[in-house]
Design a protein that fits this description.
single chain, alpha/beta, GMP Synthetase, Chain A, domain 3, 8-stranded mixed beta sheet, 6-stranded mixed beta sheet, 13 helices, 26% helix, 27% strand, globular, membrane, AMP-bd_C_sf, AMP-binding_CS
Amino acid sequence: MKVSNTETLTPMRHLLELLSRVAPQRPLWVNAFDAAVTAEQIAESISVDASMVGSRIALMMPNGEDLARSLVALDGVCEAILLLPSGLDESQRDSLMQRASIDRVVSHLADIRCNEELAAKPSDRGRLTRWILATSGTTGTPKLVEHTLATLTRSASFDLTIGAQHTWSSLYNLTGFAGLQVFLQAWCGGSKFVLHNDDATLAERVERMARLGVTAISATPTMWRKILMASDAAKLPLRRITLGGEIADQKILDALGAVFPNAKIRQIYASTEAGVGFSVRDGKAGFPASYLDTPPAGVEVRVEDGRLFLRNPDTSQRFIGNDARLHREDGFIDTGDRVERVDDRFEFLGRANGTINVGGNKVQPEEIERFLLSCDGVVQARVYAKKSPFTGSLVAADVVSSGQLEKTELRKHLTSRCRASLDTHKVPAVIRLVDGIETNAAGKVLRNAG
């Protein structure tokens, strides 16, 4: 059964009401206690205090299920919803809320619930709620981008028949663009979505997803490398694999294909600012140059001076709280990503604002990471700037060993390979062997200087 997106986008409750009629016992999510929650149960438990009508709400909820229920309840009722990322200190939260003109903070589901006499009326639930998200960059202060449910679900499938065949989960936090995308993809298709306890380790999450029969997972390439290292990884019955948020190199694509031969692998190019741009399904790193002439899914792709630009049909998203323009006059968005054409394909080089300045020479950390990951004995890598009184910065690297080589031997092997293959200014001055690579809430490698 296919559902018209014009019938379901505003608000989320409309789709819930439809599912409650046609598939009331269909589980829409599994909470952290492994309890399946049906469309009917969600519909019966949602009530919103009338004081929420037209307000600008900041959601700050550690519990994923409470956050999901709040999103369903408040969309169409509030003027705006700000999803506060985890890991912010009080001053950062206050700054984001001030920029978004927030007038109310909700940290518990009980804060929005009420008895029937005080509930918002059906006539109060049809407004176009603005969803405000913070960018998930690995450096700098987050920007705020305003979306609508339409821009967030631009690439979602509203086929309830296909949706019933999948159980989704992700390693992203629901407060970020990527995590919200996966949740809404599952929601719009009526798929079951497995929520996790934020305190659960990666190994615990992988074991749980395997036990609950998760068939579709979305994560960054860094998180996929960590998943493959988990003891229960091969038990996952995956049929759909999605990578996004970082550059996917050929090594991780090939590794996923080998471990999960029955899964369709898709790379998603998307960002908080641009929304979903395009996807690549051919199993190759980068994207086809033909995308410039034949826009995928109606999203125009342009490369100017080695930078990637996108133009979506819907340009309603915008920055909040500053004077920066999200779109150029012609509607294109500068993604900030550097790309290079190699034959009939474009390869991603890295973020334009993430280069390391080594004595006037620009080094793209992602390039060095890809090289290190191609070396035997390396399963994860992080490249970053290390301050130097002589050159301004030096290239430094943290690597996680596969255990094939002894630590001293691996360090010598990597140094020798780098010196033989890389320009002198690109060779890491320091290579540290570490137990793991730190990531942010979006699953991206943190690139703060060492």
